[in-house]
Amino acid sequence: MPELSVVVYGRNVQGHLAESLAALADAAPAVEVVVAAVGDSARQAAERHPYVTLVALPDGTADGTARAAGADRATGRWLQFVHSKDSVPALAARAVAERVAAFRETAASQEAVASKEAVASQEMAAPPESTAPQESAPPQETAAPQEVDVLLTDHVRSTWRHSRMPSPDGGFLAEPGRREVSLGDCPDLLKVTPLLGTHVVRADFWRSRQRAGLATDDELFTAYALLLTAGRIAALDQAALEDRQLRAQSLPPVTADDHFALLDTYERLLRLAAEHDAGPGPRAVLYAAMVTASLRTVARAPLPDDTAREFFARAARAAVEFRPPGYRRPGGLEGMRRRLLEENAYTKYRVFQAANQRRRTVRSAVRGSRRTVGRKVRDLQYHQDLKRPIDPNLAVFSAYWDRGVACNPAAVAAKLAELAPHIHQVWIVAADNVPLLPPGTDHVVPGTRRYWRVLATAKYLVNNANFPNAVVKRPDAVHLQTHHGTPLKRMGLDQLDYPAAAKGLNFHDLLARVDRWDYSVSSNSHSTQMWQRAYQSRYVELDHGYPRNDVYYTATAADVRAVRERLGIAPGKRALLYAPTHRDYEATWTPRLDLATLADRLGEDTVLLVRGHYFYGGAASPLPSLRRSGRIVDVSTYDPVEDLALAADALITDYSSIMFDYANLDRPIVIYADDWETYAKTRGVYFDLPSQAPGPVARTQEELTRILTCDAWRDGAAAKARAAFRRRFCEFDDGRAAERVVRRVFLGEPEDSLPPVTPLDGRTPAPTPQEATR
Virtual CA dihedral for 156, 160, 161, 167, nearest 10 degrees? Predict the structure, then answer.
């Protein structure tokens, strides 16, 4: 039986579960890890770790139920409950296990001492020896040493912006030192942040509290209730939990009912404290916490005035009913607030609050007048346009920072023209790219008068990047974020630790742009989780597939032949598409391969289609001199890239997201990862590509040449790797993604009425070049 079982529970929130389990890997097998996994995503993450005991639970399972299921499977003498969004460092888990093991040793030692004392006491009380028979005296009962029920630990806090910030709990945890105390002896332990993950619980004690109904979905109640009903408590002044505080805008909005429920929780706790005779100290701490939470709600929560007045009255009754005997209000402004609450003087409280706000505003204005504050004044005409009615039949599209008609927005636009031709489409296109537009494309140039007007009045705004900061999200407008690739490299908030990649990105502005999204399109569960984490806000995930990838299932043999003809690829020749990605640590694009040598080694039957990343569109290309060899075609400016994929017999790439899209064709993929370590360190990545690649991996040009000149690029091992990769990353792409998106967003059809995603085994990719010539 292990000393400690760490029960990780819940759904895979924002993809953090994998990190949480990886952090615990070094603690096993000394520490048992049980994962009560809610939903398929959490189950799949847990299955990748052999040391985990998995309890698979259906979607929608409540946290309390998940905790109970995990505890039922745990065999440890002590339990630590950790939500899947949080983590426990392996060293911390071992420290907790050692500390709780010491409790058992101490209890055994105390029991032995007590037993010896009892025997000695009986011997001293025995009468002198005599020949007359004596009745034996009943043995004296000795009080068993009281066991520790709860070990309180410290924690660190992480947000989207800051990592592992120390908690404010250190002083409270240091107060008992190494002593085992009762809550009455040390009521300040109730001031420790009420996180269930920092309350390590003796398993038998936990199960008894479950039977008593104290282990509920309400983590705040459960954390406090454990301390209120514990016999003995110990403290460990060491962080044993990383509490990831999710961005509020990525969570369901807090409702008025939630605020009333919080008040209910405190009232239940104060009744529980009275029932268990917790003493005046713990009751005073809990009472103060309830009053503080009540006043914070009234001051900060955006409640309608009648609801705020009702909440204030309810809090006032609780403040009077549960006020401990002898309780004294603090002095100053805080004491005034509490007095007004106890008197249920809501109007006076609001006047008092407004006066304080004016005083703070004056102080802020004085400070602001001492600084030169430059404010960008938005275009007056734009603000006038924002007062115009929304046009329900107007949709604005943009792709790749206004490059033109491309990517997922283009695929959505094409399907929209088919299914809802009454919706007029306008594309935002930079002036330099206007000549490249398809004939008849209605467009606006950024910064023009019409540009701001369509942005102000369009019902639908579609982009695969983001609209400028100045764009205002109107309540009745719909913003659709399509993205432009599956993330291998870290994105959004996950770039915080990678300054070379972030390049001065203002993360507050980024989140303000993300908060405008209503929908976010995803092509696989990996992307869904990473978007939730990298772009934390309250948008709706559309697990419908990438519209731009529909063509990989709808293109015909004639389409494949036509593309190859346009590119000048003769029938029977092998075409290899080489599409490397951008390096944040490089200013210009230089091919990492000696392309002339590679083309020569591959022979005259192979054509290299070479596509530089669009970030380097303005840089001088070294390829013109190589084109004259006849076996290299520079396709860096060719659009759409989907045509290039259809034309290619195989893909050579490094870390570009094109690999995820190309995998839909079920054609060979070769990874050229000569600088993987540097790229992963400077850019940050979500998984180890070399070990989970869609095909063979080359680290040098010689290795790459060998792979491409034998059957390794398309043999059985390559096919097996590609199949695993497709199962993971081609999850929702089946040729009908654009239709699902249009029906859901533009036509308002419910999710359950949309065309279901065809299972991978039931899909037929576009013909290969070889098949297209038959």
Answer: -20
Q: Give residue 522's identity as a one-letter amino acid code.
A: S
Ordered DSSP codes for 290-317: HHHHHHHHHHHS---HHHHHHHHHHHHH
Q: What is the per-residue pLDDT for 615?
A: 39
- In this model, does residue 414 exceed pLDDT 60? yes
Q: In whole angstroms, give the CA distance from residue 356 to residue 362.
A: 10
C-alpha dihedral sign at 331, 332, 335, 340: positive
The correct answer on CATH 3.40.50.11820 for the domain covering 381-548 is: yes
Specify the fold of 4-98+145-251.
Answer: Spore Coat Polysaccharide Biosynthesis Protein SpsA; Chain A (3.90.550)
- Residue 559 is which amino acid? D
Return the SS3 of 460: strand
Q: Which residues contact 97 (CB under 8 A, 6 or more apart)?
A: 2, 3, 4, 27, 30, 31, 78
Residue 29's pLDDT is what?
83
Mean pLDDT to the nearest integer, 107-132: 55
Identity of the residue numbered 515 = D
Rounded Cα gap, residues 158 and 117, in angstroms: 51
User: 188: which DSSP letter?
Assistant: G
The distance between the two most distant Cα atoms of the chain, rounded to a whole number of Å, is 124
pTM recorded for the entire structure: 0.79
C-beta separation of 743 from 550 below 8 A: no
CATH assignment of 570-735? 3.40.50.12580
| Residue 350, helix vs strand vs coil | helix
pLDDT at 209 over 70: yes
Higher local confidence (pLDDT), 160 or 224: 224
Establish whether the linkage from the previous residue to 253 is cis, with ω within 30° of 0: no
Enter the tokens of residue 745: 């967003």
Q: Mean pLDDT throughout 429-454? A: 94
115 pLDDT higher than 80: no
Angle at 646 between CA 642 and CA 652, to 5 degrees: 85
Going from N- to C-terminal start, the domains of the chain cover 4-98+145-251, 269-364, 381-548, 570-735
Digit-coded pLDDT (tens) for 736-759: 999 999 999 999 999 999 999 999
